[in-house]
């Protein structure tokens, strides 16, 4: 079998959590959050980090630019439509990167060309040549994607791919944009490109599969089996609509079934759980309990017969170890009397590399937590640090909250906020304590956004567990998720609501990418 021109035994992992993933409604990420994700992805050994779509907004440009400054080993990639303006903006954003890639795309399916682009196939073909040539003049590493590739006529697909490679594309990515294909068909499509495109050996062939039929990972692996050596994927399967192929599933499938798919990735799988939690925390997209690899139940055994087997030999019911994805027992950690040094060590062990001020702040909050909660676990520390980092650069902050509730009592909420440095206070009433609190916040910060989700979960077990609250707000077709954690559910709720408002302010400043259907 022919494969892409790179090392035939290695599959490159291209992460698009911060580009396609961020296109999921509600999954907005601010600059600090993107920098944290980029740092984790780089430490995980991801080969290419697609950091955003620079023309889409100043925020996207800045994110790609800042990530380009700090990433050392991975290639940083920026997305661009087939226009000079997009490509120039991507090149500008990527300037500081040590290794950079411009990813440009154009639809090639009859449906997209006719209705979306309103262009004739010949015009599309020329635009592919022009855009890829222009990108290649600015950057040595150029990826081209025929959007809606799986619904493109084969002759036209082969012709555009061949021309893109001639024009300088070094990676050819085949998107299943609408998640329509099935493994057999997708594998055959990749094989067809290897058989029919004469210069295909000059490029790395890549897959980009959406999960509308729940087949994104299976399709990606079928692509690999037929010669693709780059897989585009996202942490927790984040992405447009039903999402992209989940990075953790692709990587663990390759690792676990090396007997059938003898290909390596450079991903340090022990960091998978941390990356998953980080992305879930930042986006507010909770991972379902039975999600493969990173769901809470992925390594849990309930049935007695399974538990019995596990005690006799873990291999009876376990195809991977929890340790291989970085899952540890939630350990009882330090107590009230633990010192700063031990706390810093614990943060390092949990994967947080924080500056002195952030450690100081987290330590103070840890001590407060010890006063309120008997047992403090690793997960408490993670929630505490995530909560602190979530609030950096916020324009609105929660200062204090006092709530009256219970049977018969009128529910009132006295709240103090700091808005752009000024302290303001009011009282709200409502049907319940959360309603009263949210009404009070709205009185202090007027907005038209609709509350579309309010969700509470416990970080650990026990009645003194910290509550982790997610709030989703929708405004003008844009949605944002806010998070808050605290041992007091109402304080966590207020923090989550305030966090969502802060994200909304960031989102309002950003313009939506025009005509982006990817
Ligand atoms: O799904 C898609 O087609 C995309 C392209 C931009 C690669 O995201
Ligand atoms: Zn996509």
What would you say this structure looks like, in words?
By secondary structure, this protein is α/β, with parallel strands linked by helices. It is built from 16 helices and 14 strands. The two termini are 31 Å apart. A hairpin with a 2-residue loop joins strand 13 and strand 14 (478-486). It is globular. The protein has an 8-stranded parallel barrel, surrounded by 8 helices. Strands 9-10-11 form a 3-stranded antiparallel beta sheet. Strands 12-13-14 form a 3-stranded antiparallel beta sheet. Zinc ion (ZN) binds at residues 20, 175, 177, 208, 210, 240, 518.
Quaternary class: single chain
Largest sheet: 8 strands, parallel, barrel
List bound small molecules: 3-methyl-2-oxobutanoic acid, zinc ion
- In whole angstroms, the N-to-C terminal distance is 31 Å
* Proportion of helical residues: 25-40%
Reconstruct the topology from this structure.
Elements: E1 12-15, H1 31-44, E2 48-52, H2 58-70, E3 75-81, H3 84-94, E4 100-107, H4 110-117, H5 121-138, E5 142-147, H6 154-166, E6 171-176, H7 183-196, E7 204-209, H8 216-225, E8 230-233, H9 247-256, H10 272-283, H11 304-312, H12 340-349, H13 356-372, H14 378-390, E9 396-404, E10 412-419, E11 422-429, H15 433-444, E12 450-458, E13 467-475, E14 478-486, H16 489-508
Parallel strand pairs: 1-2, 1-8, 2-3, 3-4, 4-5, 5-6, 6-7, 7-8
Antiparallel strand pairs: 9-10, 10-11, 12-13, 13-14
Helix pairs in contact: 1-2, 1-10, 2-3, 3-5, 5-6, 6-7, 7-8, 13-14, 15-16
The protein binds 3-methyl-2-oxobutanoic acid (KIV) and zinc ion (ZN).
């Amino acid at each position: 079998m022919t494969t892409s021109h790179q090392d035939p035994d290695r599959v490159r992992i291209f992460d698009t959590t911060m580009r396609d993933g961020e296109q999921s409604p509600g999954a907005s990420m601010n600059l600090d959050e993107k920098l944290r994700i980029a740092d984790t992805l780089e430490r995980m050994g991801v080969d290419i980090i697609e950091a955003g779509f620079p023309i889409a907004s100043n925020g996207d440009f800045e994110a790609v630019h800042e990530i380009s400054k700090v990433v050392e080993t991975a290639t940083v990639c920026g997305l661009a439509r087939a226009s000079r303006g997009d490509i120039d903006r991507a090149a500008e954003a990527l300037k500081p990167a040590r290794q950079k890639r411009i990813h440009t795309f154009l639809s090639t399916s009859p449906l997209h060309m006719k209705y979306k682009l309103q262009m004739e196939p010949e015009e599309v073909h020329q635009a592919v040549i022009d855009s890829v040539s222009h990108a290649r003049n600015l950057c040595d590493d150029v990826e081209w994607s025929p959007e809606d590739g799986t619904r493109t006529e084969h002759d036209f697909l082969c012709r555009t791919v061949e021309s893109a490679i001639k024009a300088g594309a070094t990676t050819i990515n085949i998107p299943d944009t609408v998640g329509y294909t099935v493994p057999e068909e997708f594998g055959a499509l990749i094989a067809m490109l290897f058989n029919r495109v004469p210069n295909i050996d000059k490029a790395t062939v890549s897959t980009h599969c959406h999960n509308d039929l729940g087949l994104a990972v299976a399709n990606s692996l079928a692509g690999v089996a037929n010669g693709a050596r780059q897989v585009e994927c996202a942490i927790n399967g984040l992405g447009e609509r039903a999402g992209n192929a989940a990075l953790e599933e692709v990587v663990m499938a390759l690792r676990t079934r090396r007997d059938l798919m003898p290909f390596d990735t450079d991903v340090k799988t022990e960091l998978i759980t941390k990356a998953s939690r980080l992305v879930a925390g930042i986006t507010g997209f909770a991972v379902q309990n039975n999600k493969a690899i990173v769901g809470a139940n992925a390594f849990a055994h309930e049935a007695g017969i399974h538990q019995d087997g596990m005690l006799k030999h873990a291999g009876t019911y376990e195809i991977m170890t929890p340790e291989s994805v970085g899952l540890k027992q939630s350990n009882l950690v330090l107590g009230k009397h633990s010192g700063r040094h031990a706390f810093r060590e614990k943060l390092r062990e949990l994967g947080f590399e924080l500056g002195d001020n952030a450690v100081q702040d987290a330590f103070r909050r840890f001590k407060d937590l010890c006063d309120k909660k008997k047992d403090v676990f690793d997960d408490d520390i993670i929630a505490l640090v995530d909560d602190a980092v979530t609030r950096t650069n916020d324009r609105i902050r929660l200062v204090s909250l006092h709530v009256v509730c219970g049977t018969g009592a009128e529910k009132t909420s006295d709240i103090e906020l700091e808005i752009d440095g000024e302290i303001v206070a009011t009282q709200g009433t409502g049907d319940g304590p959360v309603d009263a609190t949210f009404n009070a916040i709205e009185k202090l910060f007027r907005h038209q956004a609709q509350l579309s989700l309010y969700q509470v979960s416990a970080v650990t077990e026990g009645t003194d567990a910290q509550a982790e609250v997610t709030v989703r707000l929708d405004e003008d077709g844009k949605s944002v998720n806010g998070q808050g954690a605290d041992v007091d559910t109402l304080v966590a709720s207020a923090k989550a609501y305030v966090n969502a408002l802060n994200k909304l302010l960031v989102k309002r400043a950003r313009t939506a990418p025009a005509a982006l259907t990817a």
